[in-house]
């Protein structure tokens, strides 16, 4: 069994910064990729950023230059540094990880979500 636990959401003013963290734990053999998605009210869940085990990154166009994803492979954690936040960044942010367990099966895991609200 694998769990993803997120932290770091909250309320911030436009132009401010927040840092999200996600820790993976459990029966992990290897992690292929970790990333962040978000879902605003009435909208579909969308990719924000992803980082592979080889440290390749991919960002949504809407966050390029403002958000940075990073990973600590030793601790099985992924972080999302969000700068210059805009009201349209308001959403529930979900951690996602593609993990091979100790049984060698590969599964897509999701965190419970953390609310990010950008408002004055």
Task: Walk me through what this model shows.
It is elongated and about 50 Å long. With 120 residues, it is mostly beta strands. It has no helices and 11 strands. Strands 2, 4, 5, 6, 9, 10 and 11 form a 7-stranded mixed β-sheet that branches. A hairpin with a 6-residue loop joins strand 4 and strand 5.
Low-confidence stretches: none
Specify the overall morphology.
elongated
Number of H/I helices: 0
Cα gyration radius (Å): 14 Å
**Sequence of secondary-structure elements:** EEEEEEEEEEE
What distinguishing features does this structure have?
120 residues, mainly beta, 61% strand, 11 strands, elongated, seven-stranded mixed beta sheet, four-stranded antiparallel beta sheet
Secondary structure: elements and pairs:
Blueprint lengths: L1 E6 L2 E3 L5 E9 L1 E12 L6 E7 L4 E3 L7 E6 L4 E6 L8 E11 L4 E5 L3 E5 L2
Parallel strand pairs: 2-11
Antiparallel strand pairs: 1-3, 3-8, 4-5, 4-9, 5-6, 7-8, 9-10, 9-11
In short:
The chain has 120 residues and is mainly β. Helices cover 0% and strands 61% of the residues.
């Amino acid at each position: 069994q694998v769990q993803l636990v997120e932290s770091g959401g909250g309320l911030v003013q436009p132009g401010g910064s927040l840092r999200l963290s996600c820790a993976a734990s459990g029966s992990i053999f290897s992690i292929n990729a970790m990333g962040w998605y978000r879902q605003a009210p009435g909208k579909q869940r969308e990719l924000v950023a992803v980082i592979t085990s080889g440290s390749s990154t991919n960002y949504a166009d809407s966050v390029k230059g403002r958000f940075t994803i990073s990973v600590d492979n030793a601790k099985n954690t992924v972080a999302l540094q969000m700068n210059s936040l805009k009201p349209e960044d308001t959403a529930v942010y979900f951690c996602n990880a593609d993990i091979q367990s100790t049984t060698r099966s590969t599964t897509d895991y999701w965190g419970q979500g953390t609310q990010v609200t950008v408002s004055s």
